[in-house]
């Protein structure tokens, strides 16, 4: 006597199992051969671009060797690229790497094309000190001398920045507020042209990220006067004996620029977990840490690598920078 399911039923069940398995395989993330794109809302060669390219390399291994590339979509104070990532398909293959601009845009722009709170938060990447730097021919070599020179040239000091909402713009606002003085602000379309003019002497000073200033200071193409953070910059070979602004007399001055990783709203929870797990591995990658430390950046290793804590941190930054920007009365359309 024959037992078991009829042949037709057994074949049907096998076919259904194959279809199911194929469906599971199709949903695996990242799928073989698919590229993950990190949208950077700033020009190539800038500080955020450098961070994103280092991160792209570190993410490949924990993402099963997936190809991870950077797409620079600069313009309008980072809103063009950020909006591009916001509108991307929520499948995990288009992500956003951006800096503190995520927290300043809500105040700077009435309608940037996205809502910061509607992104899927994946985790904070690093924090970057900033340094007050000056043109090589500046008649000052220490912070005390620079402070005196600024006081003697009120209304004549040209303070450069990389554009509205840029890290250098924000630090410049804080610096003017702390010194209780106004400078002639000179905005550029990116960090590179601003630095070029600082080296050439067309502008006097700038407050910019160590990811951008370190090689220029090391090459003696610009002068460094003070760090913006509570702790000194951990690159003694370049910033030997460089004081913090707090140490130099601007008590409580503490500005660092952070970078975070985001996904479009609606990205599946399983994909978000895979990406967050990969980020945590990448942030412990020895080569990534070495590259970031070489630029003065501190890789995040606290609770802010978790989505919920990352989002809570950004909300607090929105409130903090909103106060500064409103006090300065600087807004975009």
UniProtKB/TrEMBL annotation:
SUPFAM superfamilies: Periplasmic binding protein-like II
Entry keyword set: Receptor, Signal
Top-rank taxon, per record: Bacteria
InterPro entries attached to this UniProt entry: BUG (IPR005064), Bug_dom1 (IPR042100)
TM regions (residue ranges): none
Signal peptide: 1-26
Pfam family, one: TctC
Family recorded in the similarity comment: Belongs to the UPF0065 (bug) family.
Protein name (database record): Tripartite-type tricarboxylate transporter receptor subunit TctC
